[in-house]
Design goal:
Number of strands: 17
CATH superfamily of one domain: lpxc deacetylase, domain 1
Number of helices: 6
CATH class of one domain: Alpha Beta
Oligomer: single chain
Strand content: 25-35%
Structural class: alpha/beta
Radius of gyration: 18 Å
CATH topology of one domain: Ribosomal Protein S5, domain 2
Length: 283
Amino acid sequence: MAEIRQKTIRDEISFSGKGLQTGAQVSVVCRPAGEGSGIVFLRTDTENSVPIRVNDGIFSVSEKRRSTIGMGPHSVQTIEHLMAALWALEIDNVQIDINGAELPALDGSAKGFLDILGAAGISEQNAPRHIVKITEKEEVSDGKASITILPNESFKVSYSIDYAISSIPRETFTITLDNNSFIKEIAPARTFCLKQEAEQLLKAGLGKGADCENTLVMDETGPVGTVLRFPNEPLRHKILDLVGDMYMLGRPIMGEIIAERSGHALNALMAEKLFQKYVRNRS
């Protein structure tokens, strides 16, 4: 089998937009990075900012509605959609400069990030790519939520969702993912919340950048002010988030993920477990 090599973007590219949670306008510059550099975020709006490398195993298990890397004024939040796009394009090394606390929401899915990064082009590098190959059953759980990963020669995800609302029925969706299937079946799925949660989120200081174009606000009959891109778009978005959160390892997984009601905090707990076992102290 031919050796799989690391990749970076070919050209520097920039974009801007409002953050989904903060509503703040931010600008981002993505730059090519050398072999072994990893995926690195840098806040350009704070003094003495320190580069944050996702490959170093920094996981936040406290966030329930977004994934965050770093701590305090040097952190960057809501990175999961960009991380999922990086996974799909097999980008291992990239420098991401941002002048705010949160990445732009774009359309609330991974599609916008895929389009932007794709326009920058992809360059293959000389170093071999590192892959997390699951060798035995791995499990984490929190109440009724759980994630199990089993050995598999591909990357397969089976996700079960269960919300107390008729527009999001209990359902399991299973897919074997590669860049093509992800781009077609998962990437366009937008983030969502229940209509009854929307006001509570705003009171908590979240969702300030949400609108009917970048967020599915689900009531009993369906999304408010928009139409679904897939009949089960919320479920597919949960898979999108899971892919992005698992790529916080900085390397792809070979294995079968079975997720039940999982969210960002539990995803981060699994990523941390995999990091300690399969990544830490390894090349």
